[in-house]
Amino acid sequence: MEHLLGAFFLFSAFTLAGTSVVTARFVTHHIGTFTITVVSMFFAILCLAPLCGRKLPQAIGTMDKKQWLMLLLQALFGVFLFRMFLLEGLLHTSAAEAGILTGATPAITAILAWGALKEPANKKTFAGILCTVGGILLVQGILAKGSDFASEHFWGNMLVLCAAASESLFNIFSRMNSLKTDHAEKEPLDPTVQTLLVSVMALGLCLVPAMYEQPLASLMKIGVVQWSALAWYGAIVTALSFICWFAGIKRCSAYTAAAFSGMMPFTALILSVWVLGEHAGWEQWSGGVLIMLAMILIGLRDGKRDEQSERNLSIILSDDVHYDRR
């Protein structure tokens, strides 16, 4: 039952996160990258603070230095760097392609889990990684003969891939934090409290760079559509999506999360064509199919392998505990 509940939360998290690419498209050419993040974090905090109530001071009182560090890393990679790369990339590429390329996250997560966390990888995992590479090459136009692909467009897509890599590191840190809490037999942070703390940290990281973008002048010029997009970015894409993510990752493995992350590029691609009226050619659709196939392959892991992954990470965490005691 817990696994099904976790799957529901992950499905909701990635579906909502998929709207971020289209939402950002409404504001990227009107406001600076860091200003967008600061304002959206402000809306997120406004929504989250009343929900936390007394749970916030209670949680803060029980947190140690490593938990604070882990939250800071989540804010750095999951919000600050992810949005910086994504929003800058959207200035040079289409929302449809950016949405598809965020589907590289599971493959990058799998590589990190295999290389850094020593999680076992099977043939399906490697096949999924190869499918991801093929899908990216198609989206980039490299496999299309005679493709006229501007260098600016290429670097825009590269920035989106950097955003996917940042999201992958966020996934790894989130899972490590969850397992470390379980290993230490501590009460896990409430997802609402965790999301609020990450949002506050992300706002702090973006505040100084945003000051160089003349935020007040640019915000005074935008209209209802842009303000609505910022509110959605904060309340739904950040607050609600992150709450669902933290609730789901506590109950499921990183590979299960990787499988459900297919909803993010799928949602982004459909909304880009439907809402923004962007054109997606055969390269984009074929690349999208390959990347989504990769997510399914990476997510298809049996219970024994997931248990082995948990044991390997538990050994790493145990070694950390023993080292700290020395």
UniProtKB/TrEMBL annotation:
Swiss-Prot/TrEMBL keywords: Cell membrane, Membrane, Transmembrane, Transmembrane helix
Q: Which residues cross the membrane?
A: 34-56, 68-86, 98-117, 126-143, 155-173, 193-212, 224-247, 254-276, 282-300
Kindly list the GO CC terms recorded for this protein. Answer: plasma membrane
Q: Where in the cell is it found?
A: Cell membrane
Main localisation: membrane
Its record classes its membrane topology as:
Multi-pass membrane protein
Q: Where is the EamA domain?
A: 5-139, 155-299
The family database entries (InterPro entries) matched by this protein are listed as:
AA-Vitamin_Transporters, EamA_dom, EmrE-like
Signal peptide start-end: none
**Family in the record:** Belongs to the EamA transporter family.
The protein depicted here goes by the name EamA family transporter
